[in-house]
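Before relying on records like the one below, remember that each one covers exactly one chain. Contacts with other chains, cofactors or solvent are not represented anywhere in the record.
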Amino acid sequence: MPAWLARPHHYRFRSVWLLEAAPGAVYAALERTEAYPRWWPHVAEAHRIDERSGAARIRSVLPFSLRFTARETRRDREAGVLEATLHGDIDGWARWTVGPYGPGARALYEQEVEVRRSFMRRLAYPGRPFFRLNHALMMRAGRRGLATWLDGREAI
């Protein structure tokens, strides 16, 4: 039996972004989460709460938003790692790992979350493919937006 059948509200995501920019520039952009709405179309709001935490609202293709707070658990420029715990409509963690890839950079995004939003929990089985597709579309738009941003053009 697939693991998701036993834990229908649990999601693991993994995305790889190959970018034509220096790893340091990619890391610096990803580190500034409050700027995400300027280049990532589906990050509707992002703001700092304090030095190590912030709040965000995301909305992709499906007609609802997710709200959560993120608390930094690791920031290691040398290793290219940014990691945070997430709490709110989703609980879990997310991590960026940025490194060189050919003449540019590779940004690996990993996320493991439990959905807390009640209607999403009720739609766990029939909604799962749509929730996963929604996430994939959001990540694809984010990669395009960041590439444009790093290229010096306004993304949105």
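The chain is about 30% helix and 45% strand.
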